[in-house]
Design a protein that fits this description.
Helices cover 37% and strands 24% of the residues. With 176 residues, the protein is an alpha+beta fold. The chain has a single domain, classed as Gcn5-related N-acetyltransferase (GNAT) (Aminopeptidase, 3-Layer(aba) Sandwich), CATH 3.40.630.
């Protein structure tokens, strides 16, 4: 049975393991200059936690099988670092985590992922998110994410249904 709880520091090593196991799916898919091993070094994971990414951990019994973060960025909430252990993909863990992480949120929810990660885009679309058009996506990436220019060029943004009603406010001044 799948259970959820907020990240605790004692989960750090298991979260690190799941993220880097699951991220192997990107190897050979995303641009080679964006891939490195480990995909998310320990100091970067700690940096994300320090920057306000609040992880939710999914457990099957005692085993951590998935992790997904949410980061409040003022006018929006970003879903960040969504990973399911490779051996457990396709079993509904990602969908359950996404529902858990976004339950009760009132702000628009945005998700950034790699353009080349077709499986990730499909996953989010099958869960009610839609791809934001290019110029809007670039403006959102610049406003709400802190990522290198090269990653921005290779990313796509997906949004939930609340984005349409908040679009003009979220993009105010950004498209000029």
């Amino acid at each position: 049975m799948l259970t959820f709880r907020p990240f605790a520091q004692a989960d750090f090593d298991d979260v690190y393991r799941v993220i880097n196991d699951a991220a192997l799916a990107y190897k050979g898919v995303i641009p080679p200059d964006r891939w490195h091993e480990p995909y998310m070094p320990r100091h970067e994971l700690q940096g994300e936690i320090d920057e306000g990414v609040r992880f939710t951990c999914g457990f099957d019994g005692r085993d951590l099988v998935g992790v997904m973060g949410a980061q409040d960025r003022g006018k929006v909430v970003l879903v960040r670092h969504a990973y399911v252990a490779t051996a457990r993909r396709g079993s509904g863990i990602g969908t359950a985590l996404l529902r858990e992480v976004t339950r009760g949120l009132e702000k628009p929810v945005l998700i950034g992922t790699w353009k080349a990660a077709a499986w990730a885009i499909h996953f989010y679309e099958s869960n009610g998110f839609h791809v934001v058009p290019g110029s809007d996506a670039e403006a959102l990436l610049r406003r709400f994410w802190s990522i290198p220019q090269r990653q921005l060029e290779e990313s796509v943004v997906l949004a939930d249904e609340r984005y349409a009603g908040a679009r003009s406010d979220l993009l105010a001044g950004a498209l000029e």
